[in-house]
Design brief:
The protein is α+β, with helices and mostly antiparallel strands. It is built from 11 helices and 8 strands.
Length: 261
């Protein structure tokens, strides 16, 4: 059976609900979810009836009030961005770079918090944006927490699409870099996800010692900021370790270098 054939009715409904954050038309939702338009229309009618979507004009839909209701009810369990915000603010003051907190979401990651840097520009990243693991510093830091076999399996599912001319597109070269990341304790992104942007990232672990996300700091590739990458990387790794410990991570599993040793 193909992956498409294995999608259940629940999978299809959630796919439409997720796509509704960026697409309004049935045609756009069908393209984003790879579902037939009649299927998308049928799912939308159910979402509208349950309050998870609403029709704003003929053939155009947006998220409904029930989404916010559920967010409110689940807030105690998903309040990680607020928990880590003081650490992110402190890291931003130390590095002056734009700081992100991302959560692992299947074979990708999602930005859950962002603190703008002290620079005369804003990066294109935003809360809620999905990012690939193989091309970002925070994503590579998460991959470095996995055994090579698990990384290969994930890359087989997610692929390694080139984001720029610097993106790793071969598992062999990425695995070699992951080994260096484990020794160094943080990952680097040298214009691999976005042209002219450099970043450093480190993983965050929960009370079980499992990676749940990561913290990154990013800036444009000005010579001074490129030279500052090692120092910023160590600051990011230290912040990620402190956040991990605040979440109850075991001391021996609270950073990459300890896990690799």
């Amino acid at each position: 059976m193909t992956g498409e054939a294995r999608r259940t009715a629940a999978d299809k409904t959630l796919d439409v609900l997720e796509a509704l954050a960026e697409h309004r038309s049935i045609a756009g939702l069908a393209e984003a979810t790879r579902l037939p338009k009649p299927t998308v229309h049928r799912i939308l009618q159910t979402l509208v009836q349950r309050g998870f979507a609403r029709q704003v004009e003929h053939g155009s839909y947006v998220g409904g009030p029930r989404i916010l209701t559920l967010v409110g009810r689940h807030q105690p369990a998903i309040d990680l961005p607020n928990h880590v915000r003081p650490a992110l603010d402190e890291l931003q003051r130390e590095t002056k770079w734009t700081v992100h907190f991302a959560l692992l979401a299947g074979d990708a990651a999602v930005y859950a918090a962002k603190v703008e840097g002290d620079r005369p520009y804003h990066l294109a990243s935003r809360v809620g944006m999905t990012l690939a693991l193989h091309s970002t510093s925070v994503g590579k830091s998460m991959l470095a927490c996995l055994p090579d076999e698990a990384v290969r399996a994930l890359l087989g599912r997610a692929g390694m699409p080139p984001r720029t001319g610097h993106t790793h597109t071969e598992p062999r070269t990425l695995l070699a870099e992951l080994a260096a990341i484990r020794r160094r304790g943080f990952a680097e992104d040298n214009e691999e996800n976005e042209e002219s942007v450099v970043a450093v990232g480190a993983p965050v672990f929960d009370h079980t010692g499992q990676v749940i996300g990561g913290i990154s700091a990013a800036a444009l590739n000005h010579p001074a900021d490129v030279a500052a990458m090692p120092g910023c990387g160590r600051a990011v790794a230290d912040t990620a370790r402190r956040v991990s410990l605040s979440l109850g991570a075991p001391l021996q599993h609270s950073d990459l270098t300890q896990r690799a040793s």
